[in-house]
Amino acid sequence: MAATRVPVSRDIFGWAADRSGRTRDELERKFPQLDAWENGDRQPTFRQLEDFARATFTPFGAFFLAEPPVEKVPIPDFRTVANQEIVEPSPDLLDTIFICERRQEWYRQYALSIGAEPLSFIGNCTLESSIEEAADEIRNTLQFTADDRVQDRTWDEARRRLIDSAEDAGILVMVSGIVASNTSRPLDPEEFRGFVLSDSLAPLIFINAADTKAAQIFTIVHEVCHLWLGQSAVPAASMDIQETGSNPVEIWCNQVAAEVLISMEDIQSDFRGTTESEELDLLAKKYKVSTLVVLKRIFDAGLLEWHEFRNRYTEEHKRVIVLARERQKNSGGNYYNVQPLRVSRRFAKALIDDTLRGRTLHRDAFRLLGTKKHDTFVELGHAVGVV
What we know:
There is one protein chain. This protein is mainly α. The chain folds into 3 domains: about 10-65; about 80-330, no CATH class; about 340-385, no CATH class. The chain has helices at about 10-20, 25-30, 35-40, 45-55, 90-115, 130-140, 145-150, 155-170, 215-230, 250-260, 265-270, 275-285, 290-300, 305-330, 335-345, 345-355, 360-370, 375-385; strands spanning about 80, 85, 170-175, 180, 180-185, 195, 205-210. A 3-stranded mixed β-sheet has the order 3-7-6, sandwiched between helices. Strands 1-2 form a two-stranded antiparallel ribbon. A two-stranded antiparallel ribbon has the order 4-5. The chain is globular, with a radius of gyration of 23 Å. It starts with 9 loop residues before the first helix and ends with a helix.
């Protein structure tokens, strides 16, 4: 019996191939008839189309459209490259947002079921709110004052303590460098460093773990600033933006986040007049921040002209990206230590506990946690202290 072939618009194949990020050679090795499909000389079988959809991270239903869809990020997108908005999000970013939205919706329903009260800090500020007062409130809520950070020996210790404090405050913090649990789909920090989904019961922050630990600290605080405004967003999370003509939300969040991490008083006292890497590294180590944050605070204090700051920032950003990529090559670790961080320890504890009580189906819990085996589910329960 001949296999049933599926008619697909020619343009859909090229669109799916381009958005996947995979090279043409790689796809043609896996799908030798790709040229024929695109030219209309041949149509794929149902099975071939399913395989192609998986290989290109494309929703299967998209192949039945007359023309390629226009995909947009489902939350406000403040990312820019050379001051131009990014209009074509990768499937990695889109899939990560959709996964987090499903987890957030589950946790919101869970919070309602246990009678949780709305978090008072969500939407507690406006763009007219004082930078210093907002920073002070966030700093104290997160227990991330300069004095608190004295106890942290490394950036990783500071980051983990910041994550724990944010979760204790009621925020779900998910930190991962891959899509779901798929190690073959690494996230690109050049595309996005994180995003935030605001909600009064289940606020969620996602952080791209492919970035440096120091950069992740800034991104977490930046995303928290969005929560204080009550806004979901994929922020630029970049500090080399001028106030004139830039998005006022990003400006406010950058200013507050920078003030949270290094107060104006501290940078004016500690700056020694040089922006050489060695001096930036010393200040970054003291405050457990990135050297880019240090540069931004030096500029904020009026100690650098805009062109000097912008040139130095570009140089330092390149250096930081190299460090991030080197770190990513050596990343790894015990699954049961890493996975609770990927899905949020707070979320994992609630979901596993609710499942063991019979209120959530194991099937649904496995899907939300990104696991397929019961033994893995049980071990994750041990890792987060539920089982």
